[in-house]
Amino acid sequence: MADDSFDEECDYLFKAVLIGDSAVGKSNLLSRFARDEFRLDSKPTIGVEFAYRNIKVGDKLIKAQIWDTAGQERFRAITSSYYRGALGAMLVYDITRRATFDNLKKWLEELRHFGDSDIVIVVVGNKFDLEQKREVSEEEGRKFAEKELVCFIETSAMENFNVEEAFLQMITQIHKITSQKNL
Ligand code: GDP
Predict the structure, then answer these.
(1) Predicted ipTM?
(2) Sheet holding 49-57, edge to edge
(3) Which of 64, 75, 80, 138 is most buried (most C-beta within 10 Å)?
């Protein structure tokens, strides 16, 4: 999945991970962000995939390396190596399936167990385009994120709504924390 610009000069390389229940839209969020693509089929491959994208934040060029579980979450087989070195995490649920929202607690627990203590977390309510099937209100999502002291945004990978914003929110926050550490 890596793009050709890997050798381009960048100021920072960040690793971030996508987590959440199966079929919430993680891989489509990633392909939207990295390649501006959307897939209607569920992804068949099992294993870890990642994609890169270069982003300018202020005067710095950041290479974001985003990891996708590529279906492993179905078997609860995500291991500590997936989280190792990650500075950011997108915790994704599907606004049309309450169970995926209820499971956020479990994902957060795992993230806080395996992830770095200052990992940047963004809760993402995906499938915003399916308003008529919504089971979790925006208010509920926001309240959950506020309580857990993490960021929140609703997206649609299908309609490319807020996808760029969600990743940018995470990457900008990581950049802020990293530059404070390097002062
Ligand atoms: P993952 O298992 O979390 O990586 O989920 P996928 O990205 O494979 O998506 C699962 C299914 O949801 C696929 O059929 C996608 O086409 C669909 N999907 C993903 N994002 C959206 C979205 O924003 N809106 C709608 N309507 N469907 C979506």
Answers:
(1) 0.99
(2) 49-57, 60-68, 12-19, 88-94, 120-126, 151-154
(3) 64
Could you tell me if the CB of 126 is within 6 A of ligand 1? yes
Give per-residue pLDDT as tens, 45-78.
566 688 888 888 888 888 999 999 877 887 777 7
* Domain range for 167: 12-182
Q: Please choose, from the candidates 152, 145, 179, 147, the residue with its C-alpha nearest in 3D space to the C-alpha of residue 166.
A: 152
Report the alpha-carbon distance of residue 100 to residue 74 in Å, rounded. Answer: 12
Tell me the pTM. Answer: 0.91
Question: Hey, which bits of the chain come out as E strands?
Answer: 12-19, 49-57, 60-68, 88-94, 120-126, 151-154
For residues 122 and 91, the answer to whether their CB atoms sit within 8 Å is: yes
Q: Tell which one of 29, 37, 42, 67 to mutate to probe ligand 1, the residue whose CB is within 8 A of the most ligand atoms.
A: 42
Specify if 6 maps to a domain. no
